[in-house]
């Protein structure tokens, strides 16, 4: 079955698009974690970063040039932003169609607690 992001890209369910080309599409996250929260998604459905191949390198590069353009268009290029790609369970991935989160418009904050500050499992 097509991923939720494939269905958005196909126009089957609504998405608030900010960018589209022949390789990638970008739209607002349905539940934004910062003032700006965009998802940059390859049009081709690839589940995780573990599934990419050298044939995907053009598309993977396009995700970054799209991110740069979107940040400029939304006026956050100078103040800065964070790009995040989660991979599988330990990475916190929920939707198994590769996507880059673009977060900004305000301070994004610490990106992860230091490992030494984490409680051991079971406590
Ligand atoms: P992940 O945890 O997989 O890296 O991130 C998945 C993201 O997809 C989450 O931030 C979540 O809010 C977003 N999301 C899930 N379902 C939808 C949807 O139907 N539409 C949009 N625009 N975003 C979605």
Give your account of this protein's structure.
- By secondary structure, this protein is of the alpha+beta class.
- The protein has a single domain (4-106), classed as HIT family, subunit A (2-Layer Sandwich), CATH 3.30.428.10.
- It has helices at 4-9, 57-73, 88-91; strands at residues 17-20, 24-28, 36-42, 81-84, 100-104.
- The protein has a five-stranded antiparallel β-sheet, covered by helices on one side.
- It is globular, with a radius of gyration of 15 Å.
- The mean pLDDT is 96.
- The structure holds guanosine-5'-monophosphate.
- The site of guanosine-5'-monophosphate has 14 residues, from helix 1 and strand 2.
Quickly list its features:
single chain; 123 residues; alpha+beta; HIT family, subunit A; five-stranded antiparallel β-sheet; globular; binds guanosine-5'-monophosphate
Q: Which compounds are bound in this model?
A: guanosine-5'-monophosphate
Are there runs of 5+ residues with pLDDT below 50, and where?
A: none
Number of helices: 3
Q: How many separate domains?
A: 1
Q: Could you give the order of strands across the largest sheet?
A: 1-2-3-5-4
Order of helices and strands: HEEEHEHE
Shape: globular
